[in-house]
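Example record for the data management plan.
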Amino acid sequence: MAGSSDTLPAAHEGTAAIIIRAVLVGILIVFVGTIPRNIVFIANLRYFVTVPWAVPLIAVYLWFLWRYLRGDGPPDATSAERRISLRANNISGRLWAWALLSGGLGIVALVLGLGIVNRLVVLPQQGIPDLAVMPKATMAVLLLMSSLFAGVVEEAAFRGYMQRPIERRSGLPVAILITGTMFALAHLDFTPILWPYYVAVAAIYGMVTFLTDSILPAIVLHTGGNIYSNLELWLHGQAEWQAGAAPGALIWQTGIDEPFRNSSIAFLVVATMMVWAYARLAAAANASRRTNL
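Corresponding structural encoding:
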């Protein structure tokens, strides 16, 4: 595992200053990444819609942004700090396997949990603009590219540049709470009732990043989660947190029925498997660290 005491925040720097700087830098990366993407994608939705011409442009931009965040390019004085902050460290195949398994089970548990929550409370609705003029093939390519782009940029921002300094000064729980809150605020569809959802997402990706000391598995998981949520929004016209929601389907009105019981059992089973997988990931990470000492 990468990382050592010489990369810890300076002892003389206050905790509040470290947190504020980490949050501001992370949010800046999100804006620098997503604003150009959104502009180009919106243009593609209006002009030459039969061709996903925005994809190669955004791919090139993402490549340059990634190289800069990992330390390439000027100024040379910040190159090493950028590389460390990105946290894109290579890990072993064993860590990759346990990271993807634990994070994948976390995503499944989250989706199952959303189905349960939708039977307990009314969550906000999210619609999408009319995309009838956009050919399905073009829309599918744009959504896939958007999923990858967001996965890379958001993990670099939230689990790399933002989580790492907070985690090392204040611990992982504080880092997850802060990154989850900022992750929520960065999404325009955020409402307070969805705050636990975004913190749960931050916990899934943040734990994987913390244990492997790398954002690479979280990028894969985040991209996969984005593909699922984007397809859910496109095909069914609803966000992933609306899964299973239906007017009048709250258990306070219908009672605890068989679908709710089955969903609860499935959630408990998957959540238990998730905890086991994270424990195995932690053990594999500790073994890898001892080997590298």
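Summary line stored alongside the record: The two ends are 9 Å apart (CA to CA).
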